[in-house]
Amino acid sequence: MKLRSFLSCLAWLGCAFVVLNAQLAAAPADVGATVRLRVDVDREVMPAGRTDKAIIKVALDGLRLPRRDARPPINLALVIDRSGSMSGEKIENARQAALEAVRRLGADDIVALIAYDTQVETIVPARRVGDGRLLERAIRSLEASGNTALYGGVTCGATEVRRHLEDEGRVSRIILLSDGLANVGPSSPQQLGRLGASLMSEGISVTTVGLGLGFNEDLMTRLAQRSDGNTYFVENSEDLPRIFAAELGDVLSVVARRVVIEIEFPKHVRPVGFIGREGTIRGQRAELTLNQIYGGQEKFALVEVEVAPTAAGEEQELARASVRYDDPVNRRQESLSAHRSVRFSARDTDVIGSANHKVQADYAANVLAVAKDEVVALVDANQRKEAGSLLARRAAELDQLAKTYRNTAVSSLAAPAAAEARRVDSDGLDAAARKTYRADNAQIRAQQNAGRQ
Predict the structure, then answer these.
(1) Distance between CA atoms of residues 437 and 210, nearest Å
(2) Pairing of the two strands 231-234 and 205-211
(3) Domains of the chain: which residue ranges?
């Protein structure tokens, strides 16, 4: 009798376990924290007894979503240039790119379609994708004519995005495509940069896609950088559908929004400045904001610091970082913290052996990106020799770093930069090279995964 009761109890528990498993499988998954925070340093052992500089890397690793349907919903505005220069294959490929974007979205995602030439037209106001047929018909109707009211196109796109900006958990993005100079309305990089910064403060990023050799790369990259969006330079319009697909891949994988990074430094550490990104430093505190983190990608801030002399054998904390962000997957606010300490040694072999080659390579890439932006400005001012000399100096400094720490990744960056310095000195930058510089530099500084196409 006792045995039958025991077996009945086991059977009941087994059924309950099956039911519970089914309920858990049907319930929305709480995937936990969507971001990991790390604080790294270029060397874990620093030279003792003298003032030295170090590179602090505060890294955010976006975790991949466990399921495709776990992603947050999208609030997207497609802003398409249909000015006269977009006629022929360009506008046809732009239509195909926009169609590719819509097909990757879900029925509950929000999309607006804005086209601009001399005037700006909201072809489809912000609405749910549904079965997509209305949007597809509107996209296929796009035809090219007129001038380029780029600023008005972006502001109109922002107006549509704002209609659903407060919808809980939505990721807001504007994708701007242009092949020409902004010749209607505000048209300077400074004006578009201010617009980008304003949109970022609202949680809206602008991704810019520059097509061909006729657009203003300074304007497009400034708008993307200041709003924490991506930027692309596309020479051939046939690549547009692939570029839009890559961009939607990022938008559909956002795991953190409205990200604020704060770094505190102890008294013996003096923050010198950010490298590659725009942040603020006030006394012993540094702060940086990002609009979003993507799943499966790393975003980071590099800060150069000066460390006071410390005796051999001692260990000191260099930095303490905290991050807070909106988690659009679990629809809650999150905060994380981490810190980094280093040891001091009088032996060079200890210092060299402790090098973090990845941090050094990230530092080198960003130093070169900043230098190349300065090179563009010098070439524009007809100072080719000075531009080549600047790039050559940076390449030589990084080559020395690579040799000291036997860092092949840094060496692989320094050698091409030295060759580029010689080309700039002799030939300057043509239109394609200038656009490549701007796009590549922006992508490196923003840690954009997709390279120039």
Answers:
(1) 13
(2) parallel
(3) 35-67+266-346, 73-252, 357-445
Reported as a single tens digit per residue, the pLDDT across 196-230 is 999 999 999 999 999 998 889 999 999 999 999 99
On whether the CB atoms of residues 366 and 444 are closer than 8 A, the answer is: yes
Site of tokens 């072809």: 123
Looking at domain 35-67+266-346, does it have CATH number 2.60.120?
A: no
- The continuous run of DSSP H or E covering 235 comes out as none
Global pTM reads 0.87
Residue 179: enclosing H or E segment and its boundaries?
none
> Residue 321 corresponds to which tokens in the numbers above?
């970082």
What is the distance between the alpha carbons of residues 451 and 40, in angstroms, rounded to a whole number? Answer: 25
Question: Per-residue pLDDT tens for 281-310?
Answer: 999 999 999 999 999 999 999 999 999 999
DSSP H or E segment with residue 256:
strand 254-264
Helix axes 240-251, 89-103, angle to 10 degrees: 30
- Write down the residue that tokens 């991704």 correspond to: 207
Segment 43-97, tens digit of pLDDT: 999 999 999 999 999 999 999 877 666 789 999 999 999 999 999 999 999 999 9
Residue 50, amino acid: R
Structure-token pair, residue 366: 């960003």
Distance of CA 215 to the CA centre of its chain: 22
Q: How many residues does the chain have?
A: 453
What is the dihedral angle through the alpha carbons of 279, 282, 284, 289, rounded to the nearest 10 degrees? Answer: -30
Q: What is the DSSP letter of 146?
A: S
